[in-house]
Each structure stands twice: as structure tokens, then as C-alpha cells.
Amino acid sequence: MNKVSFAAGGRALTLTNLDKPLWPDVGLTKADFLRYIAAVAPRMLPHLRGRPLTVVRFPDGVAAHGFYQKNAPPHTPHWVPTYEPPVPTGKKRPVRYVLAEEASTLFWLANDAAIEFHPWLSTTSQPTRPDYAVIDLDPGPGAGFNEARTVAHGAWELLQRLGLWAAPKTSGSTGIHIVIPLEPIYPYAVTSRFVGLLGRLLELSFPGLVTTERNVAKRPYGTVYVDHLQNLYGKTIVAVFSPRPTDRATVSAPFPWSRLACVNPEQFTVADPSSVLRYGEEYAAIVSRRQKLERALDLLRRGFSGI
Questions:
Q1: What residues contact residue 131 under an 8 Å CB cut-off, 6+ apart?
Q2: With contact defined as beta carbons under 8 Å apart, do 153 and 96 qualify?
Q3: Which of 280, 212, 282, 230 is nearest to 252 (CA)?
Q4: Model pTM?
Q5: Which listed residue, 66, 200, 207, 254, has the most CB atoms within 10 A of its CB?
């Protein structure tokens, strides 16, 4: 069967090319991807609702060319809500983003081979005030997940000393994302600067292992890049539970801090949604606990006294 029509949440959908290979190295087709979306949608949607969404589409599978899609395409169903965020002065024309408010939207996107989901750090209700910040640990050449693991442990210790809580997830590749939930009262300039300061502290704590160098060519070999620029207005981070275009169909999956020492990013795949969902409830509980930055910022302003 290569085509099927069904209703999801009262929406009529036609799913096509179900036997198309999306992850050919592990034999996963579009039908497998849609089954994965059906399994994770209830947990994934709360992390997408109300957020402008960019997707990365791979119409011919991950072995072929993919492309980012910000603007809602002309064939967007009438029932899919969209949003045009404020455009900063001097920037290009507005972008009309898709909003993933219900499972039917995820099925429609998945049918378009939208494999990656990248939401904003803020919502449509307060687009210029993010409700979380992210420490993006990105290993470069000569480094990998084990190096990211070491830095993540240091970041968690630092956050605890600052009186902040956070939830980790795999990037779906070799990195780790540390999500810090926030009250949506700070402009992006503040949260980006805050993560930049954390990155600099990690760089000082792990000389030769951490870098904050923006120029890729200048980053030392074997280092983990702390990318605070992902916390700027309009930037995105791959969503929790989003698949990635890797050979093994890995997924950005949550895990508890107690599992940091032994977690393996390749254990979380599209083929095994139960493993991806295992810690979803715990992750959601942490990122829903909004917090303020005043104490942490005060400690940083006072020269890290008491940290």
C-alpha cells in the first residue's frame, strides 16, 4: 500500500509514497516515520505548540539533499495555523511560519518528508521573550559525544551553583543540548549573553576541551563548541523527539542527569519510539518549571563570588 486516506483529529489527510525509503541504511520508510510520529506526537506537541516552526525536508531521503523550510508552502492546508513574527528593523520581509498545534499538522509535515523540527525559543504570545535558553554543546573534529558528556557534567555543576535547574537531551547527533526553562521576561539579548558567559566559564574550566570561538576555522581540534548564538531572536534548536538525518535514524531524546555517564545517543532511534519516550515525562516536568535569572546574573556580576 503506497497511499492511504484517514482522519486525524477530524482532519482529512492523504498520505502518499509510504514505501519511499527515508533512512535507507536502516531500511526505514515514510510509513515507519509516520508510525514514529503517531507514537511521539502526544509528548512532542507540548514542546511545539505556539512556537514558529522551521522544518528540514528530505523528499528523497536522508542520503539525498535536504532543505530548510521556514515559510508555510502554498499547499498548506487551510486548517494549519500560521504566524508572522515581528521583523527587526533592517531585516528581510516577514516569514509566515507553520504552527504545530495538533497531531494532524505533524502528519501533514511528515508526509512532506519534513524530518527535522526546529521551533523557536519563544512563543507567539511573547515572541521577543524566550521561555527557555539552551546550552548547545557541539563537538568539532576530533571530539564526540564523550567529550560533550564531560562538558555537560561541568555545565550541570555550574548551573546548580547558580541555583538553576535544567534538562538535558541528546542533539540526535554527537552533541548535547541543556535546556534552561525561564520566565518569559528577558529579551533575547539577555539570555544569549547569559549563555555566552556560561560558555566562557566552561572554556576556562576545561582548557583545551571547550571553545567559544565563532570562526569554525579557528576552533582548536578536539574541542566542544558552546554555541550561545543559538539563543538569539529567530534562532532555533532541534525539538525534543525530532528525528535527525543520520544514517541510523537517531532522534533528539531527553534523558535524566543520572544517566549522563552512560547514555548512548545511538540508542534513541525512529525505529524504537519507546526508548525515545522513556524519559519524556520527566523532561517535560523540568522544562515547565519556569525560573528567573536575577540571582544567577547577580552572581556573575559580582565576579562569580560564591560559585
A1: 121, 122, 123, 181, 182, 183, 184, 290
A2: no
A3: 280
A4: 0.95
A5: 254
Q: b vs e for 178-214, b when ≥16 Cβ sit within 10 Å of the residue's Cβ?
A: bbbbbebebebebbbbbbbbbbebbbeebeebbbbee
Q: What is the pLDDT along the chain (307 residues), one digit of tens a residue?
A: 588 888 777 888 999 999 999 999 999 999 999 999 999 999 999 999 999 999 999 999 999 999 999 999 999 999 999 999 988 766 678 899 999 999 999 999 999 999 999 999 999 999 999 999 999 999 999 999 999 999 999 999 999 999 999 999 999 999 999 999 999 999 999 999 999 999 999 999 999 999 999 999 999 999 999 999 999 999 999 999 999 999 999 999 999 999 999 999 999 999 999 999 999 999 999 999 999 999 999 888 776 554 4
Residue spans of alpha helices (H) in the chain = 30-44, 103-111, 145-161, 188-205, 273-277, 280-287, 294-301
Q: How far apart are CA 52 and CA 186, in angstroms?
A: 19
Whole-angstrom Cα Rg for the chain:
19
Please state, in angstroms and rounded to a whole number, the distance separating the CA atoms of residues 198 and 175.
17
Question: 94-111: string of b/e by CB count within 10 Å (b at 16+)?
Answer: ebebbbbbbbbbbbbbbb
